[in-house]
Amino acid sequence: MGYALGTSACIGCGRIFSYNPMRVPSFTPPGGTREPICEQCFNIINDKRADKGLPPFSRHPDAYEPCDEEELS
Questions:
Q1: Are 46 and 57 in contact (CB under 8 A)?
Q2: Are 37 and 64 in contact (CB under 8 A)?
Q3: What is the CA angle 18-23-25, rounded to 5?
Q4: Given this model, what pLDDT does residue 73 score?
Q5: Largest alpha-carbon pair distance within the chain?
Q6: CB-side neighbour CA atoms (13 Å) of 57
Q7: How far apart are CA 56 and CA 73, in angstroms?
Q8: Within a 10 A sphere around the Cβ of 37, how many other Cβ atoms?
Q9: Nearest partner of 25 among 46, 55, 4, judged by Cα
Q10: Angle at 13 between CA 72 and CA 55, to 5 degrees
Q11: How far apart are CA 57 and CA 14, in angstroms?
């Protein structure tokens, strides 16, 4: 049994981060392709939503943890 992590640049800040490729939150910029977002940027977005009285986006609790390799098949 093994584990898997995705690694790429965050669509928000550009930093490289690791994530569960099956559960990481992602966004699609206008005219772009869907890209993952790091936990810090995700939290910033939810803080800004809260300031506007909007409900937070939800995320899976394991979004930034390794996944079992069998989930990828």
A1: yes
A2: no
A3: 75
A4: 77
A5: 45
A6: 17
A7: 31
A8: 23
A9: 46
A10: 75
A11: 20
The residue type found at 38 is C
Q: How many Cα atoms within 13 Å fall on the side-chain side of residue 35? A: 19
Q: Measured between alpha carbons, how far is 10 from 36 in angstroms, rounded to an integer?
A: 6
CA distance 10 to 20: 13
The encoded tokens of residue 38 equal: 């790091």
Using alpha carbons, select from 10, 7, 12 the residue that is nearest to residue 44. 12
- On whether the CB atoms of residues 5 and 20 are closer than 8 A, the answer is yes
- Separation between Cα atoms, residue 36 and residue 63, nearest integer Å: 10
User: Tens digits of per-residue pLDDT, 20-53?
Assistant: 999 999 999 899 999 999 999 999 999 999 999 9
CA neighbours closer than 13 Å in the CB half-sphere of residue 61: 0
59, two tokens:
């995320």
